[in-house]
Amino acid sequence: MEEKDLDAVLEIENLSFPNPWSRMTFLGEIVNPPITIPSVIVRTPEDRVVGYILLWHIREEVQISNFAVHPDFRKKGLGEAVLLYVLDKIKRHGATRIFLEVRPSNRAARSLYEKLGFRYLGSRKKYYRSPDEDALIMSLELDP
């Protein structure tokens, strides 16, 4: 992800989440290379940004900090393809475990994570706002 991608990323972010990240938050992710693995941008052949994923890599653990696909491009296998790509990439960077938080009400995301082998670890009480919801913590152990 580069600064030139942010208008498209913010459009997807605003269509995807009730509490979207701000431009400044995304900029902070772009300029924080000590822990942020280079993010993945999904583009059409016409160069339209249709998805993104941001990751934090701390030692052998990776956290998915933000992940979305444009609503017009969902249910086409893009989310799964992005996650499979990322899982391969982070294993090559020495990661052994990946974590994420997801809203209990986000059934599509939960289904995708479960399909790829993520397991529930617990919850973070009152993690999300508008609407208020706990976060489900999920993780996946990565084969070396």
Short overview:
The protein has 144 residues and is α+β, with helices and mostly antiparallel strands. It has 4 helices and 6 strands, in the order ααβββαβαββ. It has helices spanning 6-16, 23-30, 78-92, 107-115; strands at 36-43, 49-58, 61-69, 97-102, 119-128, 133-141.
Q: Can you give a write-up of this model?
A:
By secondary structure, this protein is an alpha+beta fold. It has one domain: Aminopeptidase (3-Layer(aba) Sandwich). The protein is built from four helices and six strands. It has helices spanning 6-16, 23-30, 78-92, 107-115, and strands at 36-43, 49-58, 61-69, 97-102, 119-128, 133-141. A six-stranded mixed beta sheet has the order 1-2-3-4-6-5. A hairpin with a 2-residue loop joins strand 2 (49-58) and strand 3. It starts with 5 loop residues before the first helix and ends with a strand. The mean pLDDT is 92.
- Please tally the helical runs, counting DSSP H or I stretches of 4 or more residues: 4
- Find the CATH topology: Aminopeptidase
Structure summary, number of beta strands: 6
Biggest sheet features: 6 strands, mixed
State the distance separating the first and last CA atoms: 27 Å
SS content category: alpha+beta
CATH class: Alpha Beta
Strand order of the largest sheet: 1-2-3-4-6-5
CATH architecture: 3-Layer(aba) Sandwich
Globally, the shape reads: globular
Residue share in helices? Answer: 25-40%
Domain count: the total is: 1
**Mind telling me the CATH superfamily name?**
Gcn5-related N-acetyltransferase (GNAT)
Order of helices and strands: HHEEEHEHEE
Overall radius of gyration: 15 Å
| Unreliable segments of 5+ consecutive residues | none
Subunit organisation of the chains: single chain
Kindly estimate the percentage of residues that lie in beta strands according to DSSP: 35-45%
Average pLDDT for all residues: 92
